[in-house]
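Sample entry as discussed:
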Amino acid sequence: MSLIVGRISREDMEDFQYTLEMALKSTEFWKKKFFELDSENLKPEDMVSLTEKVKITPHDLYEIDEVWPNYIKKAEVFHTVMRTSGTTGRPKRIPYTRDDRFRTARQVEPWVRKYMDNGDKIASFFPPLPSSSGMFAFGAFEALNAKSAYYQIPIQYLLDKEMLLKELQDIKPTALFCLTATAYNLGLILPESIKKDIQTIVVGGETLTPELARATLELFENAVIIDNFGSTEDAITGYRVITKKKTTEFHFEESVVILKDNGDGYDEYKRIYITKVMRNGELTGLPLFNYDIGDLARVVDGEVRNIIRVKDVISLAGAKLHIDQVMEIVFNHPDLLDFVIIYHPLSPRNPKPKATIRVAYSGKKPAGIEDEVRELIYEANNPVRYEVEESKQAELTIEAVPLEKLREGLPRKLGKTKRIYIVGRDL
C-alpha cells in the first residue's frame, strides 16, 4: 500500500511543473533521471510509480557537479551552504537560497502564527551555521517577521546546569527550541519557576512518540509541542501539534510526500520519499524529487503515527527493532524514566548482533523489571523474539539502572542526546 500527501491538489500542479522545469534546465542529475519521460504532463501522483527510476539518495548528494544547479555552481544567486551531521559517513553540503528561506517560512507559518506571534521569548538550543536547524528556525521567523525574540543558547550550557539555569533565569523564556530528547531532559532538571512559563516547545531531529510527548507535557504543564519532521535537504517537511488532549495529523505544507511499503515485512512502517516544491519564480539550492531519505513513517489506520529517523532502527539478524517500540514501553511504564540502547552490529569479531537496552528508574529498583521489559518487547515485535529465543542468531539484554547512571561511560556530544550507541562507531 502507498500513500501520497502534501501538495497534491489541482491548484498545486503549476508549482510542481515549474519546479520540474527549472530542475531539468539547470541540473544534470535530473536531466538524466527524467530522460525519456513525458515530463511536461507529469503530475505529483505519477511520482508514486517512479520511486525506483526517479529518485535521489543521501549518497547521491556528494556528487555536487551533478546535483547542484548551474546557477548555484556559478554563484549566480546568493546561497548559504549548510552541513549535515554525517549520518551517511561524511557530512554533505547543501546549498540554501533566499527563496529556500521564504519556503521554510511558509512551511512553519501555520503554527508560528497560531502559537508564537505574540511577544514570545524563544530559548533556542538549535545550533547555528553550519548546522541547518538554527538556520531554519532563525531564518523562517525573520522572514515571517514574527512578533518574537530569538535567544541563541550556547549548547555547551546543556552540560553545565548552573550556567544553564542562570541563562534561562535572565531570559525568562516562554518557548523552547531543541532536539526531541533534549526537551524531555530539560523537563527533568529545570525548576518549576522556569517550566511554568513555557507555553510552546518546538522539537525535531529525533523520533517523538505519543508516549514521549505525553511524558514531556507532564513535565511542562502549560506547554504544547510542535513536532517538526525536517532535514537539511528539505527544511521543515512536515509538522504536527501535540497537546495533553489531542495530537493533530502531520501537515506537509510545501512538499509532496510518498509513503511506500519498505518490503521488510513490517507493514506499518512505510519508506518516505520527498519531493521539494517551489513557487513560480523561485530558485532552490537543491532540487529534490522522490528523495529517499531513509526515514520511515509508521502508518496506523491511514494516518502517520510516528516518523522514525533512519538512525533509530537496529537490525537483530532477520528482525528490526524500531526505537518507537521501546519508547512506547518505557514512557508508558509508571516506574521507568528513560533508556539508551548499546548496539553491537554483526561483524567478523561479533558473529551475533546484540542489543543491550539500559532502562532508567528513580528511587527503588522495580522488582522483575528486566523480564517485564523483555516480554513487552517480544509482545510488540515477534521477529525480535524469534531471532533471540528460537533461532539464536541475535542477543538482547535488558539492564535496569538508576537514572543518574543511565549514560555512565557513554560519550556525550554537544547539542545531541543519543539513544542508540553503536559499538565500533560511537564506542
The chain has a mean pLDDT of 92. The chain is about 30% helix and 30% strand. Residues 98-115 form the longest helix (18 residues).
